[in-house]
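Researcher: Let's continue the batch. This sequence belongs to Cupin domain-containing protein, and it's 144 residues. Same format as the previous ones, please.
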Amino acid sequence: MKNNSVKWVIGHKVTLCDQSDDYDLAIGETPAQVPGPPPHLHHTFHETFLIVEGEMEFMINGETKIYKSGQCADIPPNTLHTFANKTDKLCRWVNIHRPRGFSEFFKSVGIPEEEENARGNSIAPEVIQKVIETAPDFDMQIKM
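Model: Same format as before. Here are the structure tokens for Cupin domain-containing protein:
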């Protein structure tokens, strides 16, 4: 995996992996006690999370479920969802969006890992506002 870029996106560390196929692949780390994005849906993207370490709480269409290491959360288009790490341990995950294109959101709003205080800066009010304002440009409909 060459040319990977690492960004902090609203408190989550996201490594974007270059792909030659019609999907986006990201490897993520969510620190302990970090909430996820606001509830949202994608009209076009089918999203899958594979939890590889720890656990993550997902809300999918109003139902809350905890996914643990080795389990997948499958999120079809037009499915309201969010997630959070409510534990005291790091959660590592793999995320796939199909078709390709959602990685542009991470690139647009993410703070480069090498920037000083990248994690903290990724949850600054002006960054959160940018997420809310630009989400529709990336097929992300936020439902507050």
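Researcher: Any comment?
Model: The CA atoms of residues 18 and 28 lie 14 Å apart.
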